[in-house]
């Protein structure tokens, strides 16, 4: 590798460092371990042949995910450690440290982090990559060593755990989450900003695929990622009048289907009584892979 090539790789890596650290932090819940994972990714980049890599950001994200999976599996192997020790390690040595608290608040939040700690490593990786970073299951599959279908099942199982544990499959739990989604769309249609805020977590994240952004950019001010309850509420205030209740992979969702043809799907991640993530899917290819039932 020439000096010029190494300098170029270093520049690209620095441009991606923040993203990679966020990925690692959401995977691991530990700022120090996230830094270690990013540093290891840099070392692997220096040893790899990347001249044929078209998407270096995607390549680096995959490398960091693999490193994090190894760390999570190593944690899992130490089964003799009590839950308190695992949770303490995930939160860092000093949970009262302001920087650490800010990082946790920016990633998944303490409540969600505790739930993530209960997931199997491959479930956690599949869930974080897909639900938090919109990585396609076809790209997640080789990371977790499963087929794309199996990777989707891993993320779905993790999502059910995150959204309510074993009881998530019960009619009562499904009804509770559908009521939260219904309340969200009622507030949206009625332009009730306060009611929208009431069902949104303060750190809620809205993610949209490229087709959804293309459709909603002018009318909704939609972007690939929007963070925070007020910002997300502003996007949906007075909108979504055509959304209909639906089930996606058996969970509460909504669909916009003019003339009966699904054009976009709204998926929700709900923790407790709050919506912590919304995924807006409009890509025909992605829609065709969903187990969608309009209710």
Summarize the structure.
This protein has helices at 3-28, 31-47, 56-77, 83-91, 98-106, 110-116, 121-133, 137-144, 148-162, 171-189, 193-199, 210-220, 229-236, 284-288; strands at 200-208, 225-227, 243-248, 251-256, 264-271, 274-281, 292-294. The protein has 295 residues and is α+β, with helices and mostly antiparallel strands.
Tell me what the structure shows:
Helix 8 (137-144) crosses helix 9 (148-162). The protein folds into 3 domains: 3-110, no CATH class; 119-162; 167-294, Nuclear Transport Factor 2, Chain: A. The termini are far apart. With 295 residues, the protein is α+β, with helices and mostly antiparallel strands. The chain has 14 helices and 7 strands.
């Amino acid at each position: 590798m020439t000096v010029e090539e190494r300098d170029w790789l270093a520049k690209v890596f620095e441009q991606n460092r923040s993203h990679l650290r966020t990925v690692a932090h959401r995977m691991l819940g530990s700022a120090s371990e996230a830094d270690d994972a990013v540093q290891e990714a840099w070392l692997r980049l220096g040893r790899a042949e990347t001249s044929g890599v078209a998407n270096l950001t995607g390549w680096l994200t995959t490398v960091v995910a693999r490193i994090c999976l190894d760390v999570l599996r190593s944690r899992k192997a130490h089964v003799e450690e009590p839950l308190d020790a695992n949770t303490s390690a995930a939160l860092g040595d000093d949970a009262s440290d302001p920087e650490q608290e800010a990082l946790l608040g920016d990633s998944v939040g303490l409540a969600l982090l505790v739930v993530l700690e209960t997931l199997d490593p491959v479930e956690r990786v599949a869930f974080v990559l897909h639900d938090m970073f919109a990585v396609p299951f076809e790209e997640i599959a080789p990371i977790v060593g499963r087929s794309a279908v199996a990777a989707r099942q891993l993320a779905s199982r993790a999502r059910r755990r995150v959204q309510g544990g074993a009881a998530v499959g019960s009619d009562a739990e499904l009804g509770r989450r559908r009521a939260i989604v219904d309340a969200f769309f009622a507030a949206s249609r009625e332009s009730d900003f306060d009611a929208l805020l009431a069902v949104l977590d303060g750190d809620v994240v809205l993610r949209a695929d490229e087709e959804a952004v293309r459709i909603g950019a002018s009318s909704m001010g939609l972007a690939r990622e929007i963070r925070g309850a007020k910002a997300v509420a502003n996007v949906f205030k007075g909108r979504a009048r055509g959304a209909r209740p639906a089930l996606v992979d058996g969970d509460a969702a909504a669909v916009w289907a003019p003339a009966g043809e699904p054009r976009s799907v709204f998926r929700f991640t709900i923790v407790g009584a709050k919506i912590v993530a919304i995924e807006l899917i409009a890509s025909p290819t992605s829609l065709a892979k969903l187990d969608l039932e309009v209710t």
